[in-house]
Amino acid sequence: MHVISAGMHTTVQDLGRAGYAAIGVPPSGAADPLSLRLGNRIVGNADNAAGLEFTLTGPVLRFEHESFIAITGGQGAEVSLERAGERVEVVSHRAVRVAANDRLVVKRVLGAARGYLCVSGGISVNVVLASRSTLASAGLGGLAGRALQPGDVIPVGRAAGPTCQDERAAAAGAWAAHVLARRHLRVVPGLNADAFSSAALRTMMECEYTVADQSDRRGVRLLGPCVSDACDGGQLPSEGVAPGSVQVPDGGAPIILGVDRPTTGGYPVAACVIAADMPIVGAILPRTPVRFELSTRQAAREAWANQEAQFDELLPAPTGGRL
Amino acid sequence: MAPRNFTPPQMVWSSECSLHVVFPPGREGCVPSAAARIAAGLRGVADVVPGSTSVQVLFSPGFADIEEAAQQALTLARDAEPVSAQQGRTVEIPVCYHADFAPDLAQVAAAAGMSMSAFAAAHAGACYTVRFLGFAPGFAYMDGLPPPLHTPRLATPRTRVPAGSVAIAGERTGIYPAQMPGGWRLIGATPLRMFDASRQEPALLKAGDRVRFRAVCPDEFDRLRQQGAG
Fold this sequence. Notes:
The complex is a heterodimer of chains A (323) and B (230). With 323 residues, chain A is an alpha+beta fold. Helix content of chain A is 18%, strand content 26%. In chain A, the strands form 4 sheets. Chain A has a 7-stranded mixed β-barrel. A 5-stranded antiparallel sheet of chain A has the order 1-4-9-6-7, with no helix packed on it. In chain A, strands 2-3-10-5-8 form a 5-stranded antiparallel sheet. The mean pLDDT of chain A is 94. Chain B has 2 domains: 10-78, Gyrase A, domain 2, CATH 3.30.1360.40; 90-229, Cyclophilin (Beta Barrel). Chain B has 5 helices and 13 strands.
């Protein structure tokens, strides 16, 4: 695939790298892993195949070989395909055949901050520390460790399973859009929940917050009532931080830590968004109102298992998954 | 086995699939060995992350036996002992404290009432322990900075700190593994590559390592850097 224009911030991502946090390397990977996996399943890839993650606006690409692609994320994206002077709209959440020299124009993702383009065979950049994901802050992984630029050539693998039928893909797409539209983020108590007053925690759990424009793959910043009284505003010793940690720095404005978060942090962590709702954190648009909803460890694990079972029933991962 | 008269570490859940084994004050030195024991002895673990006073254990969300594995992690941590001076590696890191490599040295030395060379000698003369890595790939937080050298972070962080910068903040010293923004005070630089994803061991330092700095002149810095590049 040739990059003609890159979009706002487009990177190669798979499901991230585990096992390197002890040396300071965050997991990275798709901020909304549900949508990446959906796209991979539609084009017949294993869940962990690398795709392109785009932010608000997408890339313009020219294809070198025939392949199948799928566009996922949010409520889908505005995408068109140009072939021999003709222009056709591309429907999201289904397998679309592209031919050599086709131009794909990914205009913008709808109802979410991030969209995904998966291609049959997966993007085959080199594996760095057990993943193809880009960690742009450290220049690691992906294509040259950075976001795409015009002129880049993205290597694509050739092997792929059969693509899935349109009806199944559409049903799974509608289900994923429904999951991502949830605005109540379920949380369990965080590492330093005890360091907050019950009044501060009540404020956080009962008030509405708005996603700030300054949010990125490191964290989603929230605007709203301050969560005060944490450890007298002081810093705690730095400890490992879980994905989804709701960290409260000095100013009292919470930050939900994302996939590119530093592996350790010293600000008090009041709560943690449950794994089942982390795709929402990766997808959510700035200026969206959100609320927290208290859950338990047991309920959180059940929510994950149920979500996975629903996904697998609608659209199972290809058997004998490649890559 | 560790003596049993110590207060044992406590387990704190940090999410439904993450927990911290927290060591009480005075027992933080057990963190690196506890992390190593848990990483080696527990299956189903996605990441084991040493911190200042705790070991974080992260599981994949779909892992079935998290509650049971959590108890095993706590058991493994209970028998951990602090890394003693005889155990573990000692890594020697060449550092050039020449003013060209040390934009903050004059200021921190003046604040400490020391000459630049005395400050540099005090930094190079101490023995450090890597407590944990974090902030950025390969960034090691080291204890052992002599108290006269303790200094607050910059009020406004630099937008660009050069790779290899040797820095101090609070009671710690560290080395920036790559060019990045940062608020620690820069008192020298090393020609070594602190992090390289293509190496078998990408990070030069790991939790529990002992570190000694060796002062080198600018000429030796250049020579070592060229050797490292070749």
